[in-house]
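[Structure tokenization] protein backbone as discrete codes

[Encoding] learned vocabulary of local backbone shapes

[Begin record] amino acids and matching fold tokens:

___
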Amino acid sequence: MKSTKPFTRAEFTQRREEVLNRGRWANAILYLFRKDGEVWVVKDFRPRHFLVRETIGRLLTARELRGLRRVAGVRGVPQGAFRLDRHALAYRYVRGTSIARPGGGGLPAEFYAALERLLQEVHTRGIVHLDVRNARNILVDHEGRPLLIDFQSHVGTAWLPRRLRRLIELFDLSGVYKHWAGSQPESLGEARAAVLARMNRWRRFWILRGYLGLPRLK
């Protein structure tokens, strides 16, 4: 039966073109792959040690794919995600510049307001990103719009009680407010500043940090 995937492991292995990020020993290697005029990112654990590849590699690959499928259709997040095999996933490349780069934080308040709206739309899909405080996961495209990548740390919220779900969503939003306060503090406003201050006090109680790759709330 012919595969319905945009490309196969064999095609990727034969023609992979560029390494975007090698990461650390327990992270996937990110490749750029082009086929039929489309550009893809491939997150691949296969080159890693057997113990990493067959444990957290398989787990995190499946986990991120679930998150990307939940946000399919949301403008500003990677689209077209599919599982290349049990060790790798791929999604369409989103072109942008990380706000973590020098000068990348000098963005207008409108950018952070748009990022806030993007994350709130993600929340309506029943997940929280949980690594928004990492500036490398936020890009700005050529039109100045925010892009959000790397859903490996996401957590589903549909099963949570409403109050706990809202608390975790505020943790997520506090990542946006952290960057906003660092770049345009005068436009953050009292309500958002209060959320940021409250979530910063709660960070030390974040019991899931470090578990299965979940981020520390910096």
Summary: The two ends are 48 Å apart (CA to CA).
